[in-house]
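Subject: complex prediction, re-run

Hi both,

The earlier run crashed halfway through, so I resubmitted it with identical inputs.
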Amino acid sequence: MDATQVIFIVSAALIVVSALMVVTSRNLVHAALWLISALFGVAILYVLLEAGFLAVVQVVVYIGAIAIMFIFAVMLTRRDMLDKGPQVNASWPVALGLCLLTFVGLGFLLSRFGDKFSHLPGALPPNLDPLLALGNALVSPQAFVLPFEVASVLLLAALVGAVYVARNHK
Amino acid sequence: MDLFLTDPIKMVYDWLMQLLTGWGLPGAVANVLLILVGIVVLIIVAMTIDIMLVWLERKVVARFQGRLGPNRVGLFGLLQPIPDIIKLIIKEDITPTGADKVVFNMAPILSLASVIFLWAVIPLAATVYGADLNVGLLYLVAAGALGTLSIIMAGWASNNKYAVLGAYRQVATMLSFEIPMIAALLIPTILASSLSLKTITTAQGGVWFFWLSPLGALIFLVAAIAELGRSPFDLNEGESEIVSGYHIEYTGMKFGLFFAGELLHAFTFGAFIGILFFGGWSFFGIERIPGLGWMASSPYFGAVAVLLKGVFFYWVIMWIKYTVPRIRIDHMLAFNWKFLTPLSFVLLMVTAMVNRLLQDFANTPQWPIYVGGMFLSNILIGWITIEILRVYGRKQKAKEPVHPAAKSVAAPSAGHH
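This time it finished cleanly. Structure:
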């Protein structure tokens, strides 16, 4: 067992525990903080996969923007507005069954992969810059330039819509 | 001995590696152990600098206010931080009633950690750096996000209205000023075609990026001051309004961690300005004098250069902090969204285009065309901005109704002669 595997096990455990705490915590801010911890664990996994760019973007976008907006919105609610009611509703057995079914299905699929999990993936070739490859792929007509531009237009439309909704109509 | 002069980190690493494997440790374990030792040493260096920053900050603010500053403990009061720290440690540690204990105690730690994270990517010299990430600049933004998170945690967990207000203000500042900051960070990225701080420094071997984009350096400085929450953007603390804001309930060393984090953050951003726009470890051009070329490859001079540039821009940030009063939150948001953000986007587009057009001249004998073109395009944008501001200001003035008091003062003086 080398250092990478130790880090993987620790961060995977962190993600699972944090994800559980997100849905079981009764305090909304605590749930948001646990969500941040889970997202941070995913960032560590990206680093282990040598996807440094995705790891940093994960922290900037998910922790720096989305999670902080969550907490911001929750903080605007009343401090003592904790949910006192039961945490599950009547259909929890159905949900549990579906979850178990999904887990068994995933386990079956992964078991069909054979010996792909018994060895670590090889290191990236030394002269390959993943960031450069990603940047070229995003603007190359042979790769992803069309989805990239469509996503940009979609975001722009959302931005214009937000400005229109927020504008002072007189 | 030669290695000691050019790459001391590698020398120490090799020596310790031999020592540890000689004791029978497997190579992989020894490697992990040495990386951990390296992290601890880096943190100790950063924190030692931090202790001296307390003295520097107090001395400089005293000079700006016409006082002497600490001058009793040690030579020039140099040992003053030590009684300061002892005082902070022996103070009573208070957790307010209704506080969220775990989050309350985690916030100061995360606050200081988010600054120390930054030291991992600072290249002190060509061979002395924590990690040369190919996403170094984005890492800088990510660490800033964690710093903001710590302030929200402190504000929320304190169970105090002033603290929550401070946290809200910090989020407003951070979310808005992140945009011009990222745009300003993209300018060195375009010029060096890399996000790695080491490559950006190497690319400034010829001409500092400040001369290619003075406006970019200025925007980065303004956005950095806002991110630091220092005056004129110290709304998150606003001592006269919300009594020090998010850290109002913190006592003793927990407050000390916030304070140390703020000082180190300011100094670290000073170092980043030096690295991104002022040549990083290059020793002010002295190393280009014939016969002094060995200085360029010496990591010791490099580290001194980075730290000196850091201290200088830290001083600039302090100079602004202790000179300019706090601005109102609506002014701050208007300044960011209606002025700084459009300006930084225009600058980014113009820099990208001019750089593309004149790039072929960059490493030829005609390099002054490239440098001059980049510099003049910046000056031109700055000039157009000032003209637009002037026209806009005149229009606003003309619209404003004349105050009755101004009329009554103006009337008698007009009839005097």
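Chain B has a mean pLDDT of 83.

- K.
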